[in-house]
Design a protein that fits this description.
The complex is a heterodimer of chains A (94) and B (499).
Chain A lengths: L1 H4 L20 E4 L1 H6 L5 H7 L9 E3 L13 E4 L17
Antiparallel strand pairs in A: 1-2, 1-3
Chain B lengths: L14 E4 L26 E5 L3 H13 L4 E5 L7 H5 L11 H9 L4 E5 L9 H7 L2 E4 L5 E2 L12 E3 H8 L16 E5 L3 H11 L2 H4 L6 H8 L5 E5 L11 H8 L4 E3 L18 H14 L5 H9 L2 E6 L2 E8 L6 E14 L2 E14 L2 E4 L3 E2 L18 E2 L2 E2 L6 E3 L2 H4 L5 H21 L11 H10 L5 E2 H16 L11 H8 L2
Parallel strand pairs in B: 2-3, 2-5, 3-4, 5-19, 7-15, 8-9, 8-15, 9-11, 10-11
Antiparallel strand pairs in B: 4-20, 6-16, 12-13, 13-14, 17-18
Helix pairs in contact in B: 1-3, 1-13, 6-9, 9-10, 15-16
The chains are: A alpha+beta (94), B alpha/beta (499).
Chain lengths: 94, 499
């Protein structure tokens, strides 16, 4: 799914090119679709922890294998990719 | 791990909705890879100071959004990419994939890269403001916070910035020559940079030898006597600053075992249920490693491991203790702390007790720090950033912007800087649209700067020149089974760039 994001107008998604090193391809799925997908590895969960707007049906787009079964699904792409590692302030905490 | 390479299934009716209230403009990429027209003399011209992630992401957003803007990136070193090249650990090559998108930006018809140009020295910011409609300062943080304790200048004490620069081939750290002939290393600070340093110190050389770590660093690490690394923080386990991916890498590091003080973790388990997910998962992993009895195979693995690492909590450095001949670090005196405050707002208070730890290497990983670049640019001496509102520099005439660490402070990952850079670009574009930034005059852009540089005997390294350096490094790396063997000397880089 990450390959759909990279050439499109969705700037900044897929920064690590699908290698489980960022959370910019974070997508939110319908419960039904989420339940259809395979299990989530620790590695994917570790990065999801850092994603902006994490939900109970979040996945990293680069880890979702698209197939005919998934045709017609709706995928929500949170606009912000600021992850938990960023500071909210406009300067360092002193 | 699965990446969706190869045939893309044709998905009809794949609807993608943007959930935020912020509208994202859908535009086409103009002038990519030699297509598109050259910029007109009267087009808006933007200059970016700093060729790292902030610079490139700001440039990317500008050229993508406005079809007439020309962006020139100036970088002090002959090579681009900043901390992606010099900061990201050698064993994290996938994080460096962003260099591909930066390369696309640099090769865009309306973007150009000028390396080997030191802004503030070879050309002033004022001169840049005369040549361009807008100047974006994205030069990052080349300094580091100091401990402010006696013994900080002893041999054997290094900032994490310098140590990381050394193993990543930053020319200025080429002669660091850290002495690794000691058993214990103490790292002060528990962020991801501290964990990178610990991992590089303890990784089996067989793992490192196929990365882009520099050969001198690899040789030094191969001879290293360091067997124990303590990663020290002034607060407790619930304030641990690193993230779970990096902790998991330490836990799984071959040939190593964790060694921590169980007493540091009293009262932590019962806090788990109220923690938000990221902190909860991090703390669960930490407890598992530090406190729980491992099952048999893991116990055997730990017993046969020859290297150890561990967090030490509630400790602040008071003094670095010298060797008998007073020339080098031989230990560190740590104050024992307790915590005050509640919830997120918790701080360390000394108890009066101290503890001495024997060690021969002290790495201070308490934060990078930006420095002022030019007297014409306002600088906050307390926060060490350029004062700004949404990337628009305050307390000066229009036309000056900033992005990245010099704008926000030196924290966050590449994706954080990416968002921040897009924000600055949006502010700049908004100012162009509103007329707050005057783009009606004709400005000389890089032609004007080139004239100034020529007079001063400074020759820029263009992106095509960098590609020769890139090619040479890849060639040398191939001979050794590494992705690249970095050139370590600016003189050598220039020689290759201009052949």
């Amino acid at each position: 799914m990450a390959q759909l994001c990279v050439p499109s107008s969705l700037t900044g998604k897929g920064a690590c090119e699908g290698t489980l090193a960022c959370s910019t391809c974070h997508v939110i799925l319908d419960q039904k679709v989420y339940d259809q997908l395979g299990p989530i590895t620790d590695e994917e969960n570790d990065l999801l922890d850092l994603a902006y707007g994490l939900s109970d049906t979040s996945r990293l787009g680069c880890q979702v294998c698209l197939s005919r079964d998934l045709e017609g699904i709706t995928v929500c792409v949170p606009d912000g990719v600021n992850d938990m590692r960023s500071s909210e302030d406009t300067g360092p905490k002193l | 791990m699965s990446t969706h390479k190869g045939v893309l299934w044709k998905i009809r009716m794949l609807n993608i909705f943007l959930t935020s209230t912020r509208r994202v403009r859908i535009t086409r990429l103009h002038g990519a890879r030699g297509l598109g027209t050259s910029p007109a003399a009267s087009c808006p011209k933007v200059c970016i100071v700093g060729g790292g992630p902030a610079g490139f992401y700001t440039a990317q957003h500008l050229v993508k959004t406005r079809p007439d803007v020309q962006v020139d990136i100036y970088e002090r070193l002959p090579v681009p990419f900043g901390l992606v090249r010099f900061g990201v650990a050698p064993d994290h090559p996938e994080v460096k994939n962003v260099m591909n998108t930066f390369t696309q930006t640099a090769q865009h018809a309306r973007c150009s890269f000028h390396g080997n140009v030191s802004v503030g020295k070879d050309v002033t910011v004022q001169e840049l403001q005369e040549a361009y409609h807008a100047v974006v300062l994205s030069y990052g943080a080349e300094g580091n916070r100091t401990l402010g304790v006696p013994g900080e200048d002893l041999a054997g004490v290094h900032s994490a910035k310098d140590f990381v620069g050394w193993y990543n081939g930053l020319p200025t750290n080429r002669d660091l020559r850290p002495d690794l002939r000691c058993e214990t290393a103490v790292i002060l600070g528990q962020g991801n940079v501290a964990l990178d340093v610990a991992r590089i110190l303890l990784s089996p050389v067989d793992i490192l030898k196929n990365t882009d770590i520099t050969q001198p660093a690899l040789d030094t690490l191969a001879e290293s006597s360091v067997r124990r690394v303590l990663i020290v923080g002034r607060r407790g386990p619930l304030q641990l600053a690193c993230t779970i991916k990096e902790l998991r890498e330490m836990v799984n590091l071959p040939g190593t075992r964790p060694e921590m003080e169980a007493s540091d973790f009293e009262c932590i388990a019962k806090m788990l249920k109220v923690l938000p997910r990221p902190r909860k998962r991090l703390t669960e992993l930490l407890l598992k490693v530090a406190v729980e009895t491992p099952e048999e195979t893991e116990l055997e693995r730990r017993n046969s491991a020859k290297r150890a690492w561990g967090f030490r909590f509630f400790r602040s450095p008071v003094e670095i203790l010298p060797s008998d001949d007073l020339t080098r670090a031989a230990g560190i005196r740590l104050a024992v702390n307790r915590l005050e405050g509640e919830g997120e707002d918790v701080w360390a208070v000394t108890t009066g007790e101290v503890e001495d730890v024997e060690c021969g290497l002290v790495i201070s990983s308490i934060g990078y720090k930006s420095l002022p670049i030019d007297p014409a640019v306002p600088f906050d001496p307390r926060k060490h950033i350029i004062p700004n509102t949404m990337g628009r520099v305050q307390k000066c005439a229009a036309g000056l912007y900033c992005s990245g660490w010099v704008k926000r402070g030196p924290t966050g990952v590449i994706a954080t800087t990416m968002n921040d850079s897009f924000d600055t670009a949006r502010t700049l574009l908004h100012d162009m649209d509103e007329g707050t930034l005057d783009i009606s005059t004709v400005k000389p852009g890089s032609a004007g700067v080139t004239t100034i540089l020529e007079k001063r005997g400074v020759k820029p390294v263009l992106f095509s020149d960098w590609e020769k350096i890139d090619s040479e490094e890849s060639k040398r790396g191939e001979a050794r089974g590494k992705p690249r063997e970095k050139l370590l000397d600016v003189g050598e880089m220039l020689k290759v760039a201009w052949t």
